[in-house]
Amino acid sequence: MYMYPPRLVHVRPELDRMAAYIPGESLETFSTRTGIPEQQLIKLNSNESPYGPAPQVLKALSDHSNYNNYPDTESTALRQALSEYTGVDRRSIVISHGSNELINLLWHIFLSVGDNIICCPPTFSLYTFITTFCGAYVLEVPRTMDYEVDVEGILMALTPETKMIVLCSPNNPTGNPICEDDVLALLETGRIIVVDEAYVEFSDQPGGLAHLVEKHKNLIVMRTFSKWAGLAGLRIGYGIFPEWIVTYMRRAQCPFEVNVAGHLAAIETLKHLDYTLDKVQLIKAERERLFTLLSSFSYLEPITSQGNFILSRVCEEDVKMERIRTTVEAHGILLRYFHHPYLSNFMRVTVGLPEHTDLLQHALSKIEAW
Ligand SMILES: Cc1ncc(COP(=O)(O)O)c(C=O)c1O
Questions:
Q1: Taking the domain 55-273, which CATH number applies?
Q2: Which atom of ligand 1 has the smallest separation from the CA of 46?
Q3: Where are the domains of the chain?
Q4: Ligand 1 touching residue 172 (CB < 6 A)
C-alpha cells in the first residue's frame, strides 16, 4: 500500500484553527448514547418541522420513475415556481443543496485569506466556521441587550477588508427579525449584505426582504425548505441575488448539486402551499403556548420569537443547566445547548406538536420539584 510521506503533505493552516461545526444531535446518536429507543424520542433541537412534508410531496416522490437521470441543473421549473412564490424574477434565484451550500459558495466567492466578515452574535455559528475555512476572520459585533443588531457598532467595526455583513432574520437563536431600515442603512456601506431568512415563514413579515434585492446590487437573501416545509432531509435551499452575483454562484456550484427528489418535493410543496402554510400557522399557535409554558418556570426566561423555536435563559443561581439537561434527556427530549460563551446558560427549544409541549412541561416540572 502506498503511504504519503507526511512531511510533503500539507493541510491548509486555517483548518488547524478551525473547530468542527457541532450540529444538533441526531436521533440515532442520542439513542445510542442514552439507550432510549428512537421511536420514543422527541427531537426539539434542530428546528425541523414536526409535521413533515405535504402528503402530495410524498406521493410525487414515490410516483417518480426517473431517478436514474441527473436533475435539471438549471432548476427551471423550481425557479419558476419560486418566482411566483417570492415575487422576484426567476433569473435572480439560485437553487442549492440546502442553504448551507449557499453559505459555503458565497463565502468562497467573496472571501480571500485575510478578509473579514461582520457577524452579530449570538447567531448561527456556521457563518464563523466557513469564514475560518476561507482563511478569513469574523469581526463580532454583539447584539444589544434586547438582541437587536447594533448598526452603529457595525459601522465602527468596518475595515477595508470587510467583504460581507451577515444578518440572520429572524435570528437563530434569539428569534427576532431585523428591521428594514437597519438593512437599508447597512447597504449604504457598499459591502455585501447577506440576510439569512431560513425562518421567515414563521415571522410577522413572511415575505421578508426579497423585494429589496432588485433595487440593491449588494443585497442577498437566503431561504430554505428545511424548516417551514418539512424538507430538511432533502436539502433544498435557495437564494435571491443581484444578477451579477448569480453568474458567479452558477460558476462556483458543482453541476447536479440539487437532487431530483429535492426538486420534486419543493415544486410539489409550492403547488400545495395551503397545506404547508396551515402547518406553519399551527406551529405559530403552539409557539405561543410553549412561550407561556416556559415563562411559568421561575428558573427560565424565554425570549419572544418569530422563528419556530424559543431561546430561554436559564437563571443559574436557581437551577444548573446540567440539571435541566439530565432531566429533559431522561424523558427522551432533545433540546439545543450551546458552546458559544454568549450562550452557555441558554437552551433553545424547537416548537413541536402540542403533545411534545406537554411532555416537555412534565419533564421541566420535575426540575422544580427537586
Ligand atoms: C439561520 C440558519 N440558516 C441556515 C440554516 C441551514 O439550513 P439548510 O437546512 O437549508 O441548510 C440553518 C439551519 O439550522 C439556520 O438555522
A1: 3.40.640.10
A2: 14
A3: 6-51+275-369, 55-273
A4: yes
